[in-house]
Specification:
It is a single chain. The protein is an all-alpha fold and 143 residues long. The chain is elongated, with a radius of gyration of 17 Å. It is built from five helices and no strands.
Length: 143
């Protein structure tokens, strides 16, 4: 009886986490392409708001998604299943990308420019592609 509630909360937490990660990724992209720092009041205010959202909404959603996901996997006895191992690998990747993006956003808030890196350049695409793979693995459980 509790499984559907855990699953619903897990999905909601992932939606919030991925939405926030995409917001941060696209913000970083915009600043990297424009090659400007957040000197203007409006830009700085927007960055501060996005940083707060990431810190108080997106990051807790990520932690909730992890906690609920592990709980669901334990209840389902799925540890050791190949599909779950692959899904966890993508979840670790997304968590790492969130950490990198959050650190870059913090640098932007402080007035710096985003470092030009392969990871940051393709973060939005990698996030969406990883989300698709995770969704297929979770729903279809092909292995």
């Amino acid at each position: 009886m509790i499984y559907p509630w855990l699953k619903a909360l897990h999905v909601a937490a992932i939606l919030i986490w991925m939405g926030g990660l995409l917001l941060v990724a696209m913000t970083i992209q915009a600043f990297a392409r424009a090659k400007v720092s957040a000197d203007g009041v409006a830009l700085r205010s927007a960055l501060v708001l996005i940083h707060r959202w990431d810190r108080y909404v997106t990051s807790p959603a990520m932690l909730l998604a992890w906690g609920l996901g592990i709980t669901i996997a334990m209840q389902g006895g799925w540890f050791g299943a190949l599909w779950l191992t692959l899904k966890l690998g993508f979840a670790v990747f997304l968590s790492a990308m969130h950490g990198i993006a959050a650190g870059t956003l913090k640098r932007l808030v402080r007035g710096g420019l985003p470092a030009s890196s392969f990871a940051l350049r393709y973060l939005p695409l990698a996030t969406v592609a990883s989300m698709v793979v995770v969704a297929v693995l979770a729903v279809v459980k092909p292995f």
